[in-house]
Write a structure and sequence with these properties.
The complex is a heterodimer.
Chain A: E1 14-20, H1 26-36, H2 44-55, H3 69-74, E2 82-86, E3 91-96, H4 104-111, E4 116-122, H5 129-141, E5 145-151, H6 160-176, E6 184-186, H7 210-215, E7 230-236, E8 243-247, E9 252-254, E10 258-262, E11 266-274, E12 284-286, E13 290-295, E14 306-308, E15 315-326, E16 332-333, E17 337-342, E18 345-358, E19 365-366, E20 370-371, E21 376-389, E22 400-405, E23 408-415, H8 437-444, E24 449-454, H9 461-474, E25 479-483, H10 484-489, H11 499-518, E26 522-526, H12 532-542, E27 546-551, H13 555-561, H14 566-571, E28 593-595, H15 602-630
Parallel strand pairs in A: 1-3, 1-4, 4-5, 5-6, 24-26, 24-27, 25-26, 27-28
Antiparallel strand pairs in A: 2-3, 7-8, 7-14, 8-13, 9-12, 10-11, 10-14, 11-13, 15-21, 15-23, 16-20, 17-18, 17-22, 18-19, 18-21, 22-23
Helix pairs in contact in A: 9-15, 11-12
Chain B: H1 3-21, E1 25-28, H2 33-45, E2 54-57, H3 64-76, E3 81-84, H4 87-91, H5 100-119, E4 123-125, H6 134-137, E5 142-145, E6 173-176, H7 184-194, E7 208-209, E8 222-223, H8 229-238, H9 256-262
Parallel strand pairs in B: 1-2, 1-4, 2-3, 4-6
Antiparallel strand pairs in B: 5-6, 7-8
Classes of the chains: A alpha/beta, B alpha/beta.
């Protein structure tokens, strides 16, 4: 069979991925598959044999794939490559995923686009850590069609019992994670046994060869019959047309259909489906097509909006529960901020909770405050903006997202059972109120908000809070400063300074602060609030109102100031569990604002804080008013 | 949906992502078939417009028909064409006689770097394909380059679910590869379907034609009687030799092409 056999050219290639532990023979299998299906360019194998001879090393089939000099020298595969081959049934794009743990991001890059997978296991070693991690990730990424390949059968003299022992081990694991392999094929990649042709040494095996197993995979189901999801990629105005551009991720459209764009819920009908160099104008389009449409109404639409149709819309929410794999060098932690990219939308999200950290070895789950590099977990993310999502199980394309930290993609998320916002604070109209939040904003000329000042005792929180209260008050802002000590003397007089009591203190203050914010006021709190976890709870309670301000003065500076004489008492052991002396302080990982009160003057810090309030709470109200007038 | 339409839709998606997410974007135009297909896809993506400059790096060793074709198409398609070159090396008489790799690096790689620096582009669109060579098979669609345009194939960003890496530290330049997932045959079948104009060197005259176009001294024609797009497709369906087989600079050593690419070659 030739790689270029013409009858297949209109048929789409099935993307498959080959995964498994390092050195279990993935690259060898790929080299052999290409060779045995007649898919290599003429002379490639001869050139490789010649190169091996010159270098004085034995020829390996994996050389075919390991085209890079660095790989040949190190003897390992570094990155995903995509090459094509075909069987009598269909063409394939094959993704050679490397086995080294360090290169998991490459394996994910490959497996994320695969419709089927071969999991390679060395019969002499059985399933190892990476075999299980890769299998788990296949499951997580939604690759449902898997065949297991038990390699290096020649090393155990094609011994049937050895095959059954190894097969049994991996089958047990796969069953636990809900993966049903279509076949478990004993092979010798090096010798080409049971790849394309059957092996006479293994006549005890009646199942399919590798290519037969691949040919039994089904093509992915059509996305055209799912509900419409058309994420907006861009809005063009190159000429007189205003074209909404995007790719139909699933479903279909036709001229005259009414599209609803979320968030916002504005609707308009499709006037035309635009195109260039087409014999005639299209009147309809389906999943997979990159389209441009014009609408009958000039409604406000921007990148990130998703068009759907009434009756089958995605979920709008501020919080997501996701199954996540982590590729970042720094661990994922509660309280950290990331950018979530979902279809064409981007959202600033905070990790609100880590519900489970999963050990892929034994599938146990435990709670923890971080997910390490190459780890897997279940976490809750909270966004300031409305996210438009689906359940991954129903609509994969809008049920998954990546997380970006700084410049880098650090993780992938699978969305589980998204719930529309219920009792969330940003839902502006509470049932019993006749005064809406929008009315309050209009009356006050600013948004309500919580400025949550955190830092060591003596860092200047109360000073800043009181100074800001005075400044904003004189500008006409409805503002109140909640001082930590003041509340402890009253409402929270029942609480001490144990970690539990400190958490409860923060929870109550956050709750009160949120009531102020709901009432349309700007409230400034000044609490040490030493742990990330407690502040994450405050953020959860405050929702969109919450702004974390790190009052950043070094411990030495605060202790030297010792405005209330507390450090002296703490050092003397009179005050137990004093933050910085006998209890820890966890600085915020990504606060909205940092005030350098250690180095800068009170006036300078106040100016920074005041500018932030202007930007975050006052200006948006003004812009909102202008938009309100325009529409 | 058939394979060609699927390829086209994916390329259009990539073009639109690049145009939306990246500032100071330009597209490389080698005058070869692949970059003509890219221009065509850009016009598909932007409904007849090419909303960024098109850069041609002139080595002054190109086959004359290529330059004629370039200037004609630039006029006809109203392209904002920017021509780059390594003037200094050309003035000093750089040519393949100084060594093919040296020449390629000086006139192409350095010429490209010079025009990128002069125009301040932060991202360039290039028409490479995974099936051309093992090193290109390793590429990402959005592929960052360091300060000196070098490519670190060991530490490439993860790229999945079409979420491309679109944010970079200052000083990074980016290559965008909209037809990375196409094969040589896909390109030809698309040329046929869309009737895309090509420089005539691709079609056989007196029993020879060019399969891949580069500089005159380093690009050999192949034996062929394929004088139409259909005949070229039929020929490729039978062929099992590599497309770059006629490119002399790749053959200097077995890793020559890889070393060219790590240094910033397309």
């Amino acid at each position: 069979m030739n790689a270029m056999t013409p009858q297949h050219h209109s048929q789409r290639s099935l993307p498959i991925v080959i995964v498994g532990h390092v050195d279990h023979g993935k690259s060898t299998l790929v080299g052999r598959l290409l060779n045995d299906t007649g898919s290599l360019p003429e002379g490639k194998v001869e050139a490789m044999r010649e190169m091996s001879r010159r270098r004085g090393m034995p020829f390996e089939w994996s050389f075919v794939m390991d085209a890079l000099q660095a790989e040949r020298d190190q003897g390992i595969t570094i990155d995903t490559t995509q090459v094509r081959f075909q069987t009598a049934t269909r063409p394939y794009v094959i993704i050679d995923a490397p086995g080294h743990k360090e290169f998991l991001k490459n394996m994910v890059t490959g497996a994320a686009s695969a419709d089927g997978a071969l999991l390679v296991i060395d019969v002499t070693e059985g399933a190892l850590e990476q075999s299980r991690r890769h299998a788990y990730l296949l499951h997580l990424l939604g690759v449902r069609q898997v065949a297991v390949v038990i390699n290096k059968m020649d090393m155990c003299d094609f011994y049937e019992a050895r095959y059954h022992a190894v097969a049994g081990g991996i089958l047990g694991y796969l069953e636990e994670i809900g993966v049903k392999p279509s076949a478990v094929v004993p092979i010798s990649a090096r010798h080409g046994n049971n790849i394309v042709t059957r092996c006479r040494h293994m006549d005890w095996y009646a199942g399919p060869t590798v290519t037969e197993a691949l040919d039994r995979f089904s093509a992915p189901p059509s996305l055209a019959d799912l509900p419409l999801r058309l994420p907006v990629q861009d809005v063009y105005k190159f000429d007189e047309r205003r074209v909404i551009a995007g790719r139909i991720e699933c479903g279909r459209i036709k001229v005259g259909d009414t599209l609803t764009f979320l968030p916002g819920g504005r609707s308009a009908r499709i006037s035309t489906i635009e195109g260039w160099n087409k014999p005639e104008a299209s009147t309809e389009a389906v999943a997979g097509q990159s389209v441009g449409v014009t609408l009958d109404q000039p409604i406000f639409i921007e990148r990130g909006h998703i068009a759907s149709m009434v009756g089958a819309q995605p979920v709008e929410t501020h919080t997501l529960r996701v199954h996540l794999f982590w590729l970042g060098h720094e661990p994922l932690m509660v309280g950290k901020h990331y950018t979530l990219k979902l279809a064409t939308a981007e959202h600033d999200v905070t990790v609100q909770a880590i519900e489970r950290v999963i050990d892929v070895e034994d599938l146990s789950g435990c709670c923890g405050d971080r997910v390490e590099r190459n780890g897997v977990g279940e976490v809750v993310l909270r966004s300031r903006s409305v996210m438009v999502v689906d359940d991954f199980i129903d609509i994969a394309k809008t049920g998954r997202a990546v997380l970006v930290d700084g410049y880098d993609v650090v993780g992938g998320c699978i969305i589980k059972q998204p719930q529309p916002d219920g009792r969330q604070t940003n839902n502006l109209i509470a049932a019993s109120h006749t005064v809406t939040a929008a009315e309050r904003v209009r009356a006050n000329g600013h948004l309500g908000g919580i400025l949550w000042l955190t830092g060591f005792s003596g860092s200047g929180k109360s000073t800043m809070a009181m100074a800001l209260e005075r400044e904003l008050f004189s500008k006409g802002v409805q503002v109140y400063a909640l001082d930590g000590d003041g509340i402890r003397l009253g409402l929270n007089a029942d609480l001490g300074f144990s970690p539990e009591d400190r958490s409860e203190n923060i929870r109550r203050v956050a709750f009160i602060a949120n009531l102020f914010a709901e009432a349309g006021m700007v409230v400034v709190t000044a609490l040490i609030s030493p742990t990330c976890a407690d502040r994450a709870i405050a953020r959860e309670i405050g929702g969109d109102h919450f702004h974390e301000i790190f009052v950043d003065a070094a411990l030495e500076v605060c202790e030297a100031r010792d405005t209330k004489g507390m450090y002296k008492k703490a050092r003397a052991g009179i005050i137990p569990e004093f933050t910085g002396v006998s209890a820890p302080y966890e600085p915020p990982l990504s606060p909205e604002l940092v005030l350098d009160t250690g180095a800068k003057s009170v006036a300078a810090c106040l100016a920074d804080l005041s500018a932030y309030v202007e930007r975050a709470l006052i200006r948006p109200a003004r812009i909102g008013a202008e938009i309100g007038r325009a529409y | 949906m058939d394979q060609l339409s699927a390829l086209e839709d994916q390329s259009v998606y990539i073009f639109r992502e690049a145009f939306n997410r990246l500032d100071k974007l330009a597209m490389l135009w080698s005058i070869g078939k692949d970059s003509n297909v890219m221009l065509w896809l850009a016009r598909k993506a932007f409904f007849g417009h090419v909303p960024f400059p098109v850069v041609h790096v002139d080595t002054h060793h190109k086959i004359p028909e290529m330059i004629e074709f370039r200037d004609r198409m630039a006029r006809e398609w109203k392209l904002d064409m920017v021509v780059g070159e390594n003037r200094e090396a050309l003035d000093q008489g750089m040519g393949p006689a100084r060594g093919r790799i040296t020449c390629c690096t000086a006139l192409k790689t350095e010429g490209l770097k010079a025009v990128i620096a002069r125009q301040g582009y932060t991202a360039v669109i290039a028409g490479i394909r995974r099936d051309e060579d093992g090193t290109r098979a390793k590429e990402r669609v959005f592929s960052p380059r360091g300060h000196n345009a070098e490519w670190d194939f060991r530490d490439q960003p993860p790229e999945f679910w079409d979420q491309f890496k679109t944010t970079f530290p200052p000083g990074t330049s980016l290559r965008v590869h909209p037809i990375l997932h196409w094969t040589e045959l896909d390109v030809w079948r698309y040329i046929k379907r869309e009737n895309i104009p090509l420089v005539s060197l691709y079609f056989a005259k007196n029993g020879r034609r060019y399969r891949s176009l580069g500089c005159a001294p380093c690009t050999a024609s192949i034996e062929s009687n394929a004088s139409t797009v259909d005949e070229v497709i039929a020929e490729l369906e039978r062929s099992r030799t590599s497309e770059r087989a006629g490119r002399a600079q790749d053959k200097v050593s077995e890793d020559a092409f890889e070393r060219l690419r790590a240094g910033g070659y397309m």
